[in-house]
Every structure is written in C-alpha cells, then in structure tokens.
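Lecture notes, unit on binding sites. The following record was shown on slide 14. It pairs a sequence with iron/sulfur cluster.
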Amino acid sequence: MKFFIKTFGCIQNTADSERIKAFYWNKGYKEVDNWREADLVVINTCIIRESAENRVYGLINEIDKWNRNPPALRAPSLDKEGLKKISIVVTGCLAGLANKDKTGKKLAQLKRDFPEVSEFLPIEKISYKIDPIRDKKDLALIPISFGCSNFCSYCIVPFARGPEISRPMEEILKEIDVVIKNGFKEVLLIGQNVNSYLNPKPLFNSPLDERENTNYVVHMGKKRLHSSFHILLEEVAKKDLQKISFVSSNPWDFSDELIATIAKYPNIDRLLHLPFQAGDDEVLKKMNRGYTQKEYLDLVKKIRSQISDVRFSTDIIIGFPGEDEKAFQNTVKLCKKAKFEIAYLNKYSPRKGTVSAKLYKDEIPQSEKKRRWNVLNDLINKK
Ligand code: SF4
C-alpha cells in the first residue's frame, strides 16, 4: 500500500506531517511523491484563511474526479495504478474544528459535503511519542505545545486545535537527545505560543520541576501562569547544538527570565519572531491582543538592551476592521521604531467562526489593503 501526504499551512503542520508519515509507515504504507500513484492520500489541512481552506477542497475534488474518471481516459503510463480508487483522509485544522464541535453538526456537515473522504482524523489521535520521519536533514522540528488559549479575535486556531497543552519536558529533551545522536545541529521549538509553555503536572517529581514556578504573573495587562519555557530553553541550550530557534512567541509571555536565558546562551538564535499584528491601541484591543504600542516597543527596547545582537521578525495584519489611515500610520510608526528585519504581512480577511468575523464588518477595500501592504513591504522587506 502506498500513501501520499499533502501539507498545507504553518510550520506546526509541517512538524505534524513528519509524525503522520511515521504513523502510516508503521502501518506498513510506503510514501510516494505523486498522489495519483497512492492508495491513500492524507491531507493535512490549514483553515487559517478561506483561500487555504478552498485549496483543501480543491484537492479533494481533484482526487474525487480522478477516482470517477474512467481508466481508459487516463494516461497510459498510469493506467495500472489508476485503476485503484484512492482513499482520502483529512487531518489538521479542518478535522480538528469539526471534531471539537460538541454538537457534532460540523462533522456531520463535512461528511455530507465530502462523502469521498473516508476519515476526518483529529491530529491528537497520532501520538507525539511516535518517532517522526524528518524531512529536513539539518534542522529538527520539535513541537513543545499544541493548541492555543489566547483567543485573538481574528484567529480560528483555538477552535481548531483546542486549548494549549504542553508536552512533558522530559519527553521533549529525550527527543532532542535522539536528534543530536542522529547528527542534527539545529532545532526549532514549535508551538502556537511557545513562551507560555508549562511543564505539565505529572512530572512534578522530576528534578526539573523543582525549579518550576506555577504562580500567576501579570504581564502586559494579562494574568498568566508563570511559564517554564525559559527552563526548557536553558536545558536545550546546554546541549551540543549550534542553533536553537523557537516560534511563535507572544509579547505578553516574554518574561525577564526568558530574555536573560537568551542573553546567556549564544547558541540561541538572535533572530526573534515577535508578532505584533497592529500598531494602533484601539485595533489591538479589538484584536484581543492585550498590549499597547508602547508596551510592545518597551519590550523590544528591553530585549535590545540585554541582547545587543538581537534582530526581530514579526507578523502584521493589514486592514483589520477599524484600521483607518491614522491607525495604519501607528503601525508604520511602530515598524520604524522597532526596525524589523522581516515582516510577514497578511491582508485581513474574516474567518468564519471567529469573534472578529461575527462582530466587525470587513470594511476596508482590497485595493487599500494592497496599498498598505506595499507601504509596509517597502519599509521592511525591501530595504
Ligand atoms: S496567539 Fe492568537 S494568533 Fe496566535 S494562534 Fe493563538 S489565538 Fe491565534
């Protein structure tokens, strides 16, 4: 039996796909490079934007068409393989969103809309204890937490992936020891909100947990559990690795201990990804990001004062409802002050099921979003 995997979306999905591959290899499947040669196509989905979701539906329809296409019409070289009907399994955020709906309506609707899909498999069904089949030969992707509990108003992730759950620290460190033994020199720690990582309770007896502090802290107006990410990062940095990066971190969980840990270990990447999304306080409030422009810039200043060679990348949403010219200029102002090396620019589009889609009208014309996109792109990415 042969399988093909198609991965859409973010680095978290790329890391998940490495485990999904191992899951099917362990069941006796062999991976192929062309879905037309497969018995099974696994689609690891992203639904962060409607366009990404539509690409998933497009692929399902294409496979369905292939399955219905009389074999005689297929290319002669593929006739033999083409006679087989290809099964489709959908996993990732689309399957997550449907399976997490307690009414069962979303899953029932998907099954009605796509009867050709044999399973909508929640990613949690694939254990993180499985040894992944790594695509990259130099950089090991290490998931440290799953889901997100932040509920930024525009984002579907908390609904699709559920609340944030961290992997046990010992399990993560063991996985890193294995990749080092296999010759990897770089690791990327992955989570939707890596810097709120919290070593889960069952391991509280281990020596690592003695240093754990689960008190609440208030940072940037948010009451947060005191994360143990800096402890994990330090343990990783002590290992024989040339570079340790992490993504994505959020401003409200960027603690002083984390800054001190990065400063202490030169093998921790100096390019920090710190999404700010918008530079206007009113827009930030509507996004439920919690911080103000000043708080974000103060954080950048504090990090720079302690890590002299630090550089920053960021994510920006352009044209969020309520972003008038004055609000946009606040974003420009923030960018000029923060001096980002790279910015990932996304034009706002409402995502069904999110708070912002329910509450706010997508009022800014596409042409204006494009203009603002060009302004920021010229300012940051083209310099
Ligand atoms: S931090 Fe906000 S934007 Fe990032 S995944 Fe969580 S809810 Fe979405």
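Take-home: The longest helix spans residues 50-68.
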